[in-house]
Fold this sequence. Notes:
The protein is mostly helical and 142 residues long. The protein contains 7 helices and no strands.
Amino acid sequence: MSQTPKSPSSDTTQPAEPAGPPPLRLILAAAVAGLEGLAVAAWGIIMCFTDSDNAVLAGLLVLVLAALPLGAAYGLRKARRWSRGPALIMQLLALPVAWTMVKSDGAVVAGGAVLGALAIAGLVLLVHPATTDALGIRRTAA
């Protein structure tokens, strides 16, 4: 008996591409990550122009760190599974920064409140079942 050879593509199971546009929660999570990334990038640019010995190096480092939320925002907008991890990390890192800003004096208090609200909103959006389903992340049964 002769058997027909299987095609290589039938042996591998590839995740299905999401059908239709991503859900609103995923788009909002991408927007939150993008706003945070733009804020970090602006902070890095401002640091580069301060009159300090290591300001340029520190500003460049902050600009490199801005790639984390910006890359996560891009991945979330394209509904890529890998993007949820960096986005969650960014939200968790933003919470203590926001807390420190709120506890300080001056104009940074308002910025800390906005950052804290964005971080909490981002966390809620990223762990929502609609977001995990859109990214193809399996949820465990309780």
